Amino acid sequence: MRVPILFYHKINHPHPEAKIRGLYVTPENFYRQMRYLKWRDYTPISLYELVKGINLKEKLSSKSIVLTFDDGYEDNYTYAFPILKKFSFTATIFLVTRDIGGLSGWADNEETVKEQLLSWDKIKEMADYGIDFQAHTHSHPSLTELDEQRIKEEIVNSKDIIQKQLGKNVDFLCYPYGHFNPQIKRILKEVGYLGALSTKRGMVKEKDDPYCLKRIGIKDKGGILTFIRYIEFKYR
What we know:
This protein has 236 residues and is α/β, with parallel strands linked by helices. The chain has one domain (2-234): Glycoside hydrolase/deacetylase (TIM Barrel, Alpha-Beta Barrel). Helices cover 36% and strands 19% of the residues. The protein has 7 helices and 12 strands. Strands 2, 5, 6, 7, 8, 9, 10 and 12 form an 8-stranded parallel beta sheet that branches. A two-stranded antiparallel sheet has the order 1-11. The chain has a two-stranded parallel ribbon with strand order 3-4. α1 (27-39) crosses α7. It is globular.
């Protein structure tokens, strides 16, 4: 089993003041990427299907892929959502629950500009279509810098808020900044999470740890040829 989990942040043209432009993929390039996946017969699956395959050692299709978006920016609704619907694709979006409907409050001048996040109305519309929403903590801290009580608060509050709003289970966490350690993985298991996603690069394989799932970050640089190389060759 070799399943790519792709991860995006913003589907938009870079903000004029943005210092890290790698967080953006333009709507035009995102469309080309999804069109390529459709042409190549890739089928987006859920994290539930992926982790079940790992836990039960089930063989998944070689054309399985997981699409994920970190942070929950409003442009995921404005630009990504119509494209996903056009190709009948599903995806998972990880929400920072403290800032729903507001600006990305964890941003600072060294990282990125503050940008608009999804509102609950838009989240619910997307969820009704089939987009999955999971946790990205409550306030987007580096979990490795927190004590155990704060770690629990961040991951439990995020889980509980989304579950209450959407009436569905929340079972996966995306680590902010990709930071985690054995203590954080232990706490996730204790409070009922089924898995977690990192920023470590690579394909997911059958013997991988569900609490340290690798992903492939997609950026605008290099265009469709770089995207194809990542999916078909580099991490195979």
